[in-house]
Specification:
The protein is an alpha+beta fold and 276 residues long. It is 20% helix and 37% strand.
C-alpha cells in the first residue's frame, strides 16, 4: 500500500485504480503523510491549517488532531518507538510527540535559524536528520535539544529534502541546485576497511571522549561546528532575543502576586489545541 495527499489523505493498493480509504478532516490541503513503519495501520499527516492529523486504517477513521501555532512541513515516525513521531515546523524548530499525549511535545529540537522543510529517522531510531531553508543539514539524537552534526555547502542553496540510508551510515540531501549530496552520518568516521590496530585506536579514543566529556574544554571542542556566516549572525540575534524574553518573564514572575503568574514551558507554548 501507499498513501497520497491533496485535498484528502488517500490510501491505495498497487493493484487497484480506486483508493482503499479516503480521509478528510476539515482542512484545505494536506502537505505530507507517512505510514508508521512499526504499526502499518497508523498514518500521520500535516496540513496547511497548521494541524497534525493521525489516522487508523483498522477503524477506517481519524483518531485525533493537534494544531500548532505555525505550519509543519514534514513528519516522520520513529521506527523503534511506534508511538513517537517528529515534525519539521516553520518556526525553525522540530517537535517530537507521543501520539498518546499530544497536549505537549516530548522534545523540542532547536538549532535551525529558518523554516525546517523535511525530517527523516535512521533505521535504528536513535537519531534523525533535518533539512532547512537556512542551507544546512543537521543530525540530531532523538532525545537531544541541540544537533550533534551540521553540514553545509557553498553552492548548495536551500535544502528541500533529506533521508537516512538503510545502514544508518550516510545521509542524502536534495537542494535547490538540483543536486543530491551524500554525507557521512558521523563526520569523523573513516570509510573503507580498517585494520585491527585502527579499530582498537578508534575504540580507545571514543572511551577517552566519554570519560572526559563533562570537562568544559572537551565539551566545548566536541560541540564546536563551523557554520555559514548568515547562520551564525542569525543565531546570535535569536540568542539575544531569547535571553531578553527570559529575563522579562523572570521579572514578571518576581513582581506578580504569588500564584498569579503561571509559567508555560516551551513544549506547550507552541501548541494551540487538540481535537479528537
Amino acid at each position: 500500500m501507499f498513501v497520497t495527499v491533496g485535498d484528502t489523505v488517500d490510501v491505495w493498493d498497487y493493484n487497484r485504480s480506486a483508493p482503499l480509504s479516503s480521509f478528510e478532516w476539515g482542512c484545505e490541503r494536506v502537505i505530507t503523510a507517512k505510514f508508521n513503519p512499526a504499526e502499518p495501520a497508523l498514518i500521520a499527516s500535516t496540513a496547511v491549517d497548521r494541524s497534525i492529523g493521525l489516522y487508523d486504517l483498522r477503524g477506517n477513521s481519524a483518531i485525533r488532531k493537534v494544531v500548532l501555532k505555525m505550519r509543519s512541513n514534514g513528519v516522520c515516525w520513529n521506527p523503534m518507538r511506534p508511538m513517537n513521531f517528529t515534525v519539521a515546523n516553520e518556526d525553525c524548530s522540530l517537535y517530537s510527540f507521543d501520539m498518546r499525549k499530544l497536549t505537549a511535545a516530548t522534545y523540542r529540537h532547536w538549532d535551525h535559524v529558518m523554516a525546517v522543510l523535511d525530517v527523516n529517522y535512521s533505521p535504528t531510531g536513535q537519531e534523525f536528520v533535518s533539512a532547512s531553508y537556512d542551507n544546512t543539514v543537521r543530525i540530531w539524537n532523538f532525545d537531544s535539544q541541540r544537533s550533534r552534526e551540521v553540514y553545509h555547502g557553498k553552492r548548495m542553496g536551500r535544502v528541500l529534502c533529506c533521508h537516512f540510508t538503510q545502514d544508518s551510515r550516510f545521509v542524502l540531501s536534495g537542494s535547490e541546485d538540483t543536486n543530491i549530496r551524500v554525507w557521512k552520518a558521523k563526520s569523523d568516521q573513516k570509510l573503507g576497511m580498517q585494520t585491527p590496530r585502527e579499530k582498537r585506536s578508534e575504540a580507545y579514543r571514543e572511551t577517552l571522549k566519554t570519560k572526559f566529556s563533562k570537562m568544559p574544554e572537551i565539551s566545548r571542542i566536541k560541540r564546536h561546528r563551523h557554520v555559514p556566516k548568515m547562520v551564525k549572525t542569525v543565531s546570535e540575534k535569536r540568542r539575544v532575543i531569547r535571553e531578553s524574553k527570559g529575563r522579562k518573564e523572570e521579572n514578571r514572575r518576581k513582581h506578580s502576586k504569588p500564584g498569579s503568574f503561571v509559567h508555560e514551558p516551551m513544549k506547550k507554548r507552541h501548541i494551540l489545541k487538540e481535537v479528537e
